[in-house]
Amino acid sequence: MDTLLAPLFEPLRVGSLRLKNRIVMAPMTRNYSPDGVPGENVASYYQRRAEGETGLIITEAVGIDHPAALGEAGIGESDLPHLYGEQALNGWRRVVAQVHDAGGVVFPQLWHQGVMRRQGTGPHPQVASMRPSGIWGLPGGLTSSPDFYVQSQLVPTQPMTERDIEEVIEAYARSAMHALECGFDGIAIHGGHGYLIDNFLWSVTNQRSDMWGGSRRERSRFAAEVVRAIRRAIGPDMPIVFRFSQWKQQDFKARLANSPAELEDVLAPIAEAGVDVFDASVRYFNRAEFPEQAGPDGEMNLAGWAKRVTGCLSMTVGGVGLNNGMYDSNKQGGAQASNNLDLLMERFNRGEFDLVGVGRSILQDPQWALKARQGQAFDPFSNEALSGLN
Ligand SMILES: Cc1cc2nc3c(=O)[nH]c(=O)nc-3n(C[C@H](O)[C@H](O)[C@H](O)COP(=O)(O)O)c2cc1C
Questions:
Q1: What pLDDT score was predicted for residue 174?
Q2: Which of 28, 57, 122, 299 has a CA-to-CA distance to 77 between 20 and 30 Å?
Q3: According to the CATH classification, is domain 6-386 in 3.30.200.20?
Q4: 195 catalytically annotated
Q5: CA 379 – CA 66 distance, rounded (Å)
Q6: CA pair distance 67, 85, nearest whole angstrom
Q7: Domain locations in the chain?
Q8: What mean pLDDT comes out for the span 274-290?
Q9: pLDDT at 48 over 80
Q10: Are 59 and 374 in contact (CB under 8 A)?
Q11: CA–CA separation, 228 and 226 (whole Å)
Q12: Buried b (16+ CB within 10 A) or exposed e, 17-28
């Protein structure tokens, strides 16, 4: 057993579930599910991570049962999976069965692209994209999206109607039921990165004057209602992980909260609706979120603050085992393995967060968790891992 990393191998109870360790495979889009259906290759890919002793696998983002959930969102999507229809559900049943046979635990990440979906794309090109206020974002935001995409997205559209909102919430609940039927062990919700749930949280994309807009707490109502509907569908015990981010693909510098009190306004209503774990999506786990805070609090990262202001469990992510964050590595041609695990463990041992999300390192090396336990060297990272189904 590696002594530095040994604390990561303390089991954790989350709702009714026991995780054997604290290492979570972060959700990563793969584009390997033609017609939305994950095949044998996808099942084996997740099985390898379960065999590699990953404590919890969160799948790639999976389209919910709503016609505008998926399309092209400027990130080179093609074969995105969804969570409805017999074929896709059978595909997911196979994924779950293979992960379980290998001793793993797996949650699907429920996804609705919201304003990021390009009109006229995806499995139902005729339906309108769902935008809370018809707005994609502001021009001039720091983004890595291609210019043609940004220009077309900046054209305003109709805001979502009350009926649209109800239908999307029902679709989340229905998809959670489908996940339950497939045998998944819990639900992860994509509430970050500029997609639908985040569109309600962010003041730029939510300018509504009805009950779905207003103050931070009011803008959290949609996220809370989604969580509540899922909770009703799956019952009280099954864990719910909620991912959120300050940054948006429309603007990497965007923020939902500038202080711990503002973060509490955003997250408290969502926590009360029935979340077990907040997954705080940042690109570098080792960055202070509110450095102006006095004393040791000034060091704490976003996952630490999510835990502090909600009392829920939390998960960190972002550059674990790597020297370059996700977007920086795309720009700069790659990332290298880094010995930042001592910095990670300082934070973990202080109790800042309970779970550690590992993204690209686990894409590269399915045995990452097993090697962490045994103190073995990890495979060196190469950008090729980003596009394959290793
Ligand atoms: C290829 C790739 C696909 C991703 N797809 C998703 C996704 O579907 N949903 C999501 O919430 N985050 C997604 N992410 C972000 C990761 O979950 C993670 O937060 C990010 O990669 C930072 O972790 P890392 O530095 O360990 O890679 C993706 C990242 C990568 C590299």
A1: 98
A2: 57
A3: no
A4: yes
A5: 39
A6: 12
A7: 6-386
A8: 97
A9: yes
A10: no
A11: 5
A12: bebbbbbbbbbb
